[in-house]
Write a structure and sequence with these properties.
The protein is α+β, with helices and mostly antiparallel strands. It has 5 domains: 184 residues, no CATH class; 124 residues, Roll (Chitinase A, domain 3), CATH 3.10.50; 105 residues, Chitinase A, domain 3, CATH 3.10.50; 86 residues, no CATH class; 101 residues, Chitinase A, domain 3 (Roll). 46% of the residues lie in helices and 20% in strands. A 4-stranded antiparallel sheet has the order 17-3-19-18. A 4-stranded antiparallel sheet has the order 13-5-15-14. It has a 4-stranded antiparallel sheet with strand order 9-8-11-10, with helices on both faces.
Length: 695
C-alpha cells in the first residue's frame, strides 16, 4: 500500500511515535504476565515493574519499528530513543489507567472516525494522524487519504497491523487530550486576575536609584557560625529538595596509533600499488573505479578536477598508469592515480525523460531502453520534448517542467548521467542507464570556457591503533583504576602525576544521555547507579570506541532533602549574603542622592538595566508613591534605594479593557498544563526509576 511506504519514508519521528502504539497492540495487557517476585526496574504507584516486562515491551516495540522501516536492525541513536519512549509509555499506563477508568474516559468508534476524517480538527486533530496524512505539497491534512488508508487496510496483513496500532495510538492520544482538557477547564482566569494582569502590563514607572552590591565586600570579612548555618538550613529545607543524581570526575585516554601502527599501515597499502597501476583505463574506467571502491576506506570521488583545484602539477600532468605515494595525509596513507583526462564545462543544463521498470508494462531494462529509443526517434522527427516528458517521464518533479533539471555542477547527478552531460555537447540527445532506470537526456547548456580536468583515483588506508597499542592504553587505564584504591584524593594525585586532564560531569541522572567526550555513556551511568557504587568509588576502565574512561564518584544525591553537609557551601553563601544585606541596610538609611535611572518599568518587568534580575526592587518601584524615597531594599545582587520620578497607566479598568489579557492568560494556562501534566503525574505516582542499574 502506498501509505505504508509513505510512513516508512517519513523518518524516525513518525516511526518512533507509531512504535508506542505497536507495543500496546502486540503485547496487550503485559502486566498480567509477570509476578511481583521478578527483578524490578521500577515501582510506580506502589506497583513493581519487572525487568522482564520492560524487555518484552522493548522487544515488541523494536520489532514494530523494523516492520515499519523495513530494516533488519536499529541504529544506536534510535535504540536509545526507543528505551525512553517505552519507559514513558509504561509510566503513563501505570499512572493513568485507573484514572481513565474512574473518570469514564473512553474514545468511541464514531469519535475515532471523526479523528481519522479530520472532522474534529477544530477541537484538536490527533498529532500522529496529522503528521502521517499531511499532504507534503500543500502542508494541509488530507482527510481523504486517511479515510482511504483505514478503509483499505484489510487488503494486507501488514496494512491491517499498521492500522490497528495507529488506531490504538489515536485512542491513547485522545484520552490524554480529554484528561488534560478536563483539568484545564477546571482552572480559569477571573476578571479580577485579568484586571491585575492588565495593570501590571500598562502601569509603568521611571525611578532614580542607587545600590551597594554584595560583591563589593569580601566574603572573608563576614563571619558566620555553624549555628547560624544550621538555623538557615532548617528554616529553608524546602529550597534544598533534590532529585537523585551523581557527580563524577573522570579521565579519557585517547587511543592513538603508535609508530608501529604507522609502519604496518604503510606496508599494507604498498600491497595495492602494483595492481593499482596496472589496471587499464583505455577502454573503460569502471574497472579502476570498482577497484577503488573494493579496496579503499573512502568511496571513489566522481568529480573531475582542474589543475587549479588539484594544486599538484606533477600529479595533474602524469600519465594514467603513474601511481603516487603512499603519502601520509590526515592520518591515512594514500595512493593516487590520475585518469579520465577530459575537457569539460564547470556547469551544465539538461532535461530528461526517465523510463523506470515497473514489472508490468515495462518489465525489464531492455524494454525501458526500447521505449527511450522510440521517444528519441520521435524527438528527432520534431515531437516536443517537454510534452513527451510530461506524458512519459517517471520523474514527476521534473516532468511538470518539461523534464527540465535546471543547471547543475558535477556531482549533483549519478555518474552515468553526469558524464553524459559534461562530456557531451549542447544539443546532444543521449540514452543513459542508471540505478534509477533509463534516461533520455537532452543537453541544453554548458558553461564556457571548457577546462581540461582529470579524475583522481585514491586508495586510502587509515592508520588505526593495533592490538599492542590498545593493550598499552588499557594497562595505563587499569593502573589508574587499581592504584586509586577507591579514593578520590589518590585518583586526583595519579591524574596530576601522569599529566592527564581531569574532566567533571555534574548532576548525572539515570536519564542522562550525554557526558562530554564520551560517545556512549550508558556503561558509565550503569556503574554509577549500582548498589555497591558510592561516593569515592573509582571505576574499572570502560572502552568507548577509541578511548578508555576511568571515573570516580565525587558526590551522591538521593531523592528528598539534601543533607546539610552536602549544601553547606550554598548555605554559607546565602547566610553571608543575608548578613551583608542587613549591614548595607543600616548604612543606606539616609540616602538622598542617586546615580542611576530606570525607565518604563512595569510589574511584569524582570531586569533592572545592567543590574540583573531584581524582582523585589521592581515591585517596590511600581508600588511606591511618586517623589517618595524608598527604604533600603534587599535585592538579589545588592541593596537598593530608589525614588519614583514618573508614573503612568490606568487608574480604573473596565471588563472590556481586559478581554485580550484574559484570553491570552487562559491560553498560556492551558499550554502550561498540557506541557507539565505528565511530569506532575509522574511526581504524584512516586516513580522509583532503577533502570540505570540494569541497562
Amino acid at each position: 500500500m502506498a501509505t505504508l511506504q509513505r510512513i516508512r519514508n517519513a523518518g524516525p519521528v513518525i516511526v518512533i511515535v507509531i512504535g508506542l502504539a505497536l507495543v500496546a497492540f502486540l503485547l496487550g495487557d503485559v502486566n498480567k504476565l509477570f509476578s511481583r517476585s521478578d527483578r524490578n526496574i521500577a515501582e510506580i504507584n506502589g506497583t513493581p515493574v519487572s525487568i522482564q516486562e520492560y524487555q518484552v515491551r522493548f522487544k515488541n516495540y523494536e520489532e514494530g519499528m523494523k516492520m515499519l522501516t523495513g530494516k533488519s536492525s536499529l541504529d544506536e541513536q534510535n535504540q536509545k530513543y526507543v528505551k525512553e519512549q517505552v519507559w514513558d509509555k509504561i509510566v503513563k499506563n501505570y499512572s493513568l489507567s485507573n484514572t481513565y477508568e474512574n473518570l469514564g474516559l473512553e474514545v468511541s468508534d464514531l469519535e475515532l472516525a471523526k479523528i481519522v476524517s479530520g472532522e474534529n480538527i477544530q477541537t484538536g486533530l490527533d498529532p500522529l494522524t496529522r503528521q502521517i496524512f499531511t499532504d507534503p505539497n500543500t502542508r494541509q491534512f488530507n482527510s481523504q487519504a486517511a479515510v482511504n488508508f483505514f478503509q483499505n487496510a484489510n487488503q494486507s496483513e501488514e496494512g491491517l497491523q499498521v492500522a490497528k496500532f495507529l488506531e490504538n495510538e489515536m485512542r491513547d492520544n485522545r484520552k490524554f487530550t480529554k484528561y488534560a482538557s478536563l483539568i484545564s477547564k477546571g482552572m480559569n482566569i477571573t476578571n479580577f486576575e485579568a484586571k491585575s494582569l492588565y495593570k501590571e502590563r500598562v502601569n509603568v514607572v521611571d525611578f532614580d536609584y542607587t545600590s551597594k552590591k554584595y560583591n563589593s565586600v569580601s566574603d572573608s570579612t563576614v563571619s558566620v557560625t555553624e549555628n547560624e548555618l544550621k538555623e538557615y538550613y532548617d528554616s529553608h529545607k524546602n529550597d534544598y529538595e533534590q532529585k537523585e543524581s551523581r557527580d563524577i570526575a573522570y579521565v579519557t585516554l585517547n587511543i592513538v596509533p603508535s609508530e608501529e601502527d604507522f609502519q604496518v599501515a604503510e606496508k599494507d597499502i604498498e600491497y595495492y600499488k602494483a595492481e593499482f597501476s596496472e589496471i587499464s583505463v583505455d577502454t573503460s574506467i569502471n574497472e579502476l573505479i570498482d577497484y577503488v571502491n573494493a579496496n579503499s576506506e573512502v568511496p571513489f570521488d566522481e568529480k573531475h578536477y582542474s589543475l587549479e583545484e588539484l594544486g599538484d602539477t606533477a600529479l595533474f600532468n602524469a600519465p594514467s598508469d603513474s601511481v603516487f605515494g603512499p603519502d601520509l595525509e590526515n592520518g591515512s596513507y594514500v595512493l593516487k592515480r590520475v585518469f579520465d583526462r577530459v575537457t569539460v564545462p564547470d556547469t551544465v543544463g539538461a532535461r530528461h525523460i526517465l523510463i523506470q521498470v515497473d514489472g508490468q508494462v515495462i518489465k525489464d531494462m531492455n524494454r525501458a531502453e526500447e521505449i527511450a529509443d522510440s521517444l528519441k526517434t520521435l524527438i528527432k522527427k520534431g515531437s516536443d520534448f517537454a510534452q513527451l516528458a510530461k506524458d512519459n517521464s517517471a520523474d514527476k518533479g521534473s516532468a511538470e517542467k518539461g523534464g527540465d533539471l535546471d543547471k547543475f555542477t558535477e556531482g549533483r547527478m549519478v555518474r552515468p548521467f553526469s558524464d553524459a552531460c559534461f562530456k557531451g555537447n549542447v544539443g546532444d540527445i543521449v540514452i543513459v542507464k542508471s540505478q534509477y532506470g533509463v534516461h533520455l537526456i537532452e543537453i541544453t547548456y554548458q558553461s564556457k570556457p571548457k577546462k581540461e580536468k582529470v579524475r583522481i583515483a585514491k586508495i586510502i588506508n587509515e592508520v588505526r591503533p593495533g592490538n599492542n597499542t590498545i593493550s598499552g592504553y588499557f594497562a595505563k587505564a587499569r593502573d589508574l583504576s587499581i592504584n586509586s584504591d577507591n579514593n578520590t584524593d589518590k585518583f586526583d594525585e595519579l591524574i596530576e602525576k601522569d599529566h592527564l586532564t581531569k574532566k567533571i560531569a555534574t548532576e548525572i541522572t539515570p536519564e542522562t544521555e550525554i557526558i562530554a567526550g564520551v560517545d556512549n555513556p550508558d556503561a558509565v551511568i550503569r556503574w554509577i547507579y549500582k548498589d555497591e557504587t558510592g561516593k569515592g568509588s573509582v571505576s574499572e576502565p570502560f572502552q568507548d570506541g577509541d578511548i578508555f574512561i576511568v571515573a570516580a564518584v565525587t558526590e551522591v544525591r538521593e531523592d528528598g532533602t539534601a543533607p546539610f553537609d552536602q549544601v553547606k557551601e550554598d548555605v554559607t553563601a546565602k547566610v553571608r549574603k543575608e548578613k551583608k544585606g542587613e549591614m548595607f541596610v543600616k548604612e543606606m538609611q539616609d540616602i538622598s542622592s542617586f546615580d542611576k535611572t530606570a525607565k518604563n518599568i512595569s510589574f511584569s518587568s524582570s531586569r533592572l538595566n545592567d543590574d540583573g534580575i531584581e524582582y523585589a526592587v521592581i515591585a517596590t518601584g511600581t508600588q511606591l508613591e511618586k517623589d517618595k524615597i524608598s527604604k533600603p531594599i534587599i535585592g538579589e545582587n545588592g541593596v537598593y534605594v530608589l525614588k519614583v520620578t514618573s508614573k503612568t497607566g490606568a487608574e480604573t479598568v473596565e471588563d472590556k479593557d481586559v478581554v485580550n489579557d484574559k484570553m491570552n492568560a487562559e491560553r498560556r494556562l492551558y499550554f502550561t498544563i498540557s506541557r507539565q501534566i505528565f511530569d506532575a503525574l509522574k511526581d504524584a505516582a512516586e516513580v522509583q526509576d532503577d533502570r540505570a542499574k540494569f541497562f
